[in-house]
Amino acid sequence: MNSNTLRMPAVVLLATGAVALLAAPPASATGGGGAGPGGAGKAGAVVLRAGLDVGLLDKTVDIPLKTTLNEVTAPAAPAQKTALTVTLDGVEGGAPVSVLRADVATSEATADKNKAEAEVNLAKARVHVPGLPALSLVEVEQVTSKAVCEAGRKPVASANVLGKVTALGKKVTLSAGGPTKVEVPGMGLVTMELSGTETTSDAAAASALRLTISVNPLNLNVAEVQGEIVLAEAHCTSPPAPAPIPPKPEGKPDVRPQAVADTRTGTVTTGANLAETGGGSTAPYVAGAALVLLGIGGGALVLTRRRRTS
Q1: What secondary structure letter does DSSP report for 33?
Q2: CB 211 within 8 Å of CB 191
Q3: Are 30 and 104 in contact (CB under 8 A)?
Q4: What is the H or E stretch that residue 294 is in?
Q5: Average confidence (pLDDT) over 22-49
Q6: What is the mean pLDDT of residues 207-217?
Q7: Residue 210 CB neighbours (<10 A)
Q8: Which residues is 68 bridged to in the sheet?
Q9: In the chain, % of residues over pLDDT 70
Q10: Neighbour-count burial for 1-39, b at 16+ CB within 10 Å, e otherwise
């Protein structure tokens, strides 16, 4: 199974909403949108976003098909959606047009004061457009996108297209170096481009695959379909970082007064009284006793030396 991990400049990032035909507000990693209610972050996910013009054989005007499938946002409420159909009048007998069919198609978004996160997963997905009910415009084995914005940390975004990809029944090898074009004579052209990821200091966005479509099926009253489709986009904005804890003030040193004992009187002098111990009334007696002891010791030493020499 092939894997394309997307790390491309923002210029090709469809998560920024640079599709002129799209009616819904774009996903963007521009940041600066502020926190949600209660200081929570923000997150949103969309399985498929389409902006198409459908030309009908029996009319001189185009019918716009601007829709999003499985779009969820938070913190309005943690959500998950799986609805995959949209109705377009005047096409295919007025029956619902299944723009996307998939074994798995989920979009999830959660946000609180600590983290905002959005994720999209598509497996065994088949994209259809009006006028081509039997033939898939694009088939992918798996596409995913994820955006995580955690308070106080750098946001992270990722997008992947995994496994085999086909367009109009032809196997396609996608490249991060540029778009891949698939043209089927008598049917039309599909340009496929890996989108990518974008992060700022407080936001992230990711989308997996961008399709530019120009097909002329001439079937089921459809003359031409033009526009763009984006698969699997997710975006988030970080909650405010927690306020830094101010440093504790340094405590004063624990200085305790020293104690000096008076061996003659048995009294103890502390603190400021230390200065007085050297000049009090007992100081001469203490000094005299020390001199007497010193004289006795010196005399004993001299006597000992005389005895040794004799």
Answers
A1: S
A2: yes
A3: no
A4: helix 283-309
A5: 65
A6: 89
A7: 24
A8: 49
A9: 59
A10: eeebebebebebbbbbbbbeebebebbbbbbeeebbeee
